[in-house]
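Hi Prof. W.,

I finally got the Methyltransferase prediction working! I wasn't sure whether to trim anything, so I left the full sequence exactly as given:
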Amino acid sequence: MQKSQQNFFDIYSSTDELKIHGMLSASLNSKCIQIGVKYGIFSLIHSGTENTKDLAKKLGFIPDRLYRVLKNLEHLTVIKETNEHCFKLTALGEKLLPDSKGSLANLTMLWSDEFQNATNNLDNTLKIEKSGFEIAYNDNLYSYLQKNPKIAENFDLAMRGLSEYFNNEIPNEMDLKSVESIADIGGGSGATLRNIIAHHSHLKGILFDQKSVIDKAMNEMEHFQHKNRVDLVHGDFFKPLPFKVDCIIMSNIIHNWSDEKATQILLNCRNALNENGKIYLVEAALEGSIEPIMGRSMDLTMLLMTSGKERTFNEFDKVFHSAGLKRVNAKNILNMTCLIEVKSI
Ligand SMILES: C[S@@+](CC[C@H](N)C(=O)[O-])C[C@H]1O[C@@H](n2cnc3c(N)ncnc32)[C@H](O)[C@@H]1O
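And this is what came out:
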């Protein structure tokens, strides 16, 4: 009997040798997925261009070579060869369509050139106190994004795609009974804040971010049903915040920064709180049962992209203490992140 073809996931969990092969092939596999998204191959297949020759003609690729990439994508189980040289998208592959629910297409592109160039410097980050990104581009990530609007747009969408997965869960996990006003600091496109405001009808919100990000968020906020309960404010979280609120949420911010910078941001947040106010951080805590599944790889991503880091509770508590704050609660959210509640000492 012919042995059925094994896919990547079978191999990854079989013998020790093959587990290592699986790990080593990760960057090649990631590149194939990126090609599928970057050149719209998944979208073309989904909309009916299923034959390799037709795909190659539309994209200006060499058919035989494209076929070899497609076969590896089949091995990764995102497409399936149904007839000779003809492919269909699998349910997993549909997650890579730009407009699908919970699409990971923008996230895929985030792991593209800039990320790869930063990753190539992982060993250098062990010797030089700079992020892999800074070593590769001689610039920091956020200043680079401000100069490259197209990449910045993808970055914002990727961040949103990442948060979408756990965003619905966040408002249910927050205790907002005695809170009337909330600010999302470094809130990006505003997806997290919109979700919270939509869940809690008594709340007023402020979306705070850099000017270029707020300018873009304005368009989206125009279509938000509860826009009359949200203000958009631009500024710099390293300077005193220009408002007072009962609660602050910061999602994926502190992990971008060194302890010193994180303390500065948290101190500004603390000073913007009304009496008995609180801060919620959405961050991966590297801590036993609460540690999200990708905690360690996210930690290295921070090292590469921003010189930041994911933190253990000990490390968080040191930063909180320096900013006059203390941790009062923390829980794991869908194994993707954690919600950490912090109050003034
Ligand atoms: C990793 S993104 C997180 C976005 C959003 N909170 C989320 O979870 O999807 C970091 C955000 O911090 C913002 N940011 C970076 N430096 C800032 C600064 N100095 N002042 C205000 N916002 C800043 C960026 O513009 C970006 O939107």
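The chain has two domains: 8-94, 163-344. Does that look reasonable to you?

Thanks,
D.
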